[in-house]
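To the wet lab folks,

You asked to see what we're planning to order before we commit. Fair enough. Below is the target structure as tokens, and below that is the sequence we designed to fit it. If anything looks off to you, flag it before the synthesis order goes out.
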């Protein structure tokens, strides 16, 4: 079932990308795996899905321990600065950082780990209150 769902999603992404004049190979699908068992992630990985999104740090840490580097995990959702250390250790990307305090905490922990991490920065250009 996971294999069929991923194939349908990939077909949809390919059609949409081509209709927009984009190369479908430049579009990455992040499968949200929170609350799914490791077995489902393995099945998805065996079907070609390599990026997974998590927003529960403890759950992601357990999955990372079991899967090692066989998949990549992105942190999705709101990251609290007190959880930056754990996030720096286990994730391959943070989506998204919305405050300088979090960026600074991540940077400090990443330097200690001698690790680089892709981060998406959220910018409030409308001056809306958070």
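Sequence we intend to order:
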């Amino acid at each position: 079932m996971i294999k069929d769902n991923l194939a349908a999603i990939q077909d949809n992404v390919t059609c949409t990308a081509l209709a927009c004049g984009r190369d479908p190979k430049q579009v990455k699908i992040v499968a949200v795996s929170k609350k799914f068992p490791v077995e489902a992630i393995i099945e998805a990985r065996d079907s070609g899905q390599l990026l997974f999104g998590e927003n529960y740090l403890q759950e992601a840490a357990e999955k990372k321990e079991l899967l090692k580097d066989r998949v990549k995990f992105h942190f999705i959702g709101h990251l609290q600065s007190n959880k930056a250390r754990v996030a720096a250790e286990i994730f391959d990307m943070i989506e998204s950082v919305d405050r300088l305090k979090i960026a600074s905490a991540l940077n400090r922990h990443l330097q200690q780990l001698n690790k680089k991490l892709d981060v998406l920065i959220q910018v409030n250009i409308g001056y809306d209150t958070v």
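Structural context that might help your review: The beta strands are 31-32, 51-54, 72-76, 93-97, 118-121. The domain at 28-121 is CATH 3.20.20.10 (TIM Barrel).

Thanks,
Computational group
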